Every structure is written in structure tokens, then in C-alpha cells.
């Protein structure tokens, strides 16, 4: 992990009332060099403190008390987040999944003026898995059928998961994702089918199967707790606090 600065890095959590936001606040209490200042909630100003964390509906320009906003919200919240941060120079770490093209473009536009760290999965292990999948995709070529099976808790809305899409892109950036046994677009090239399970409290589990007529190779990753993603986000905070403007991801942090 990056060596903490002598002055602690101060963080606001966007999406701090959700499950991941609360987990992040709890894990941060044991991390040297990071202080959670409060919760950024542009839509609900004046709320009572939550777990002793005050709510903020905006960040004054040049506020020296906020270095980074960590975003674990929902895709529809990205637009209001970028709007609130415009002109502040505050860096962003976002692990919100299910982003569409519009939300991604908003983050990329904001990254032209300050550092933005975005990844659909804040796990170091997933970064390693993506590296393995790129190699497997190249070596198998058209020899194998590829299918992704992913498991998450019952409350996860998006399907396939953002991580599943990221894993498919690692195999082949041009692959066409087809959910379940649905029909593939006419003229599609390489097809990767995805299957989503939403049950219980599963933090996250992904299996990528490469199957030929004679054998199956499976590359898997299992998250054992939500604390995994919170720790990854806090590592990202310390990683980008000294970085220049631009887009960064776990691939940059992990160096893979």
C-alpha cells in the first residue's frame, strides 16, 4: 500500500447510507492515513448525522478539508456527484457498478481536470484474474465456448454484474455479451454468455469457463466479505491522492 502522507487524507463517502458505504466507514477507522469526514448527499441536505458522520450537500471550492470522495452509490447518482464536484478539484474513487456509457463519459470528462479512480471491482485478486483471462482468451482463440457464471446477494440490482462485463472485456474487448440463453445479435463475432444468481448475502463470486469438446478450464474468484472491496477502495484513495489528472483503475494500482 502507498505510504500514507503525514497529513491524513480526508474522505467523504457518496452513498454512505448504503451497505458498502457503512462498510467503508467501519474499515477506514482502522486504516492509518485516512479520515472519514462525513457523507456527501447532494439530494438530501440537512440530515441528522449517521453513526456520528455529518451529511454534506456540497463541497466549497478550494475546501482543504476534503481530498477524495469515495463513491459507492448507484449509476443514477454519478451525474449529481460530478455536478457537485465541478470546479472543486476533489479526486474521486468510484466502485459503483452498472454504469452506462453516459456515466462513464461523465467520469472521464471530470478526470481531465483531476484524478479519478474507477473500477467495477475493487479487489486486487480480480485484477490478477483479468490478466489470466487475457492470456487464456488469446491461447484458446476460437477453440472454446466461453460462459461466465456470477453470484451476488439478493439486493444487487444490475445483472450481469459490472465485474462480469469487465472479465469478458479482459478475455476479448470485442466479444459480444449475451445474457443467459438469449439470441445473439446477427453477425456477432465472439460470443460470451453470462448467467446471474442473486441469493442470500453472497458478496461476490465469478467463474469463467472455457469449454472445448474434451476439457473445461475454469478461472474463478470468490469474495469472502464486503470488507475486501472497502479495503481496495481505501488503497485506491491513498494511490490517487498524489496523482495528476486522468483515469486510473485497479490495473494501475496492482501493476498488472
SSE map:
Blueprint: E1 9-14, H1 19-28, E2 34-40, E3 55-56, E4 68-71, H2 78-85, E5 91-94, H3 101-110, E6 115-118, H4 124-140, E7 145-152, H5 162-171, E8 176-179, E9 191-198, E10 204-211, E11 216-223, H6 227-240, E12 246-248, H7 250-254
Parallel strand pairs: 1-2, 1-4, 2-3, 4-5, 5-6, 6-12, 7-9, 8-9
Antiparallel strand pairs: 7-10, 10-11
Q: What's the CATH topology name of the largest domain?
A: Rossmann fold
- Alpha-beta content class: alpha/beta
Bin the helical content: 25-40%
User: How many domains would you count in the coordinates?
Assistant: 2
The CATH architecture of the largest domain = 3-Layer(aba) Sandwich
What's the CATH class label of the largest domain?
Answer: Alpha Beta
Q: How far apart are the termini? A: 15 Å
Q: How many separate helices?
A: 7
Salient structural properties:
256 residues; Dihydrodipicolinate Reductase, domain 2; 5-stranded mixed sheet; 7-stranded parallel sheet; Rossmann fold
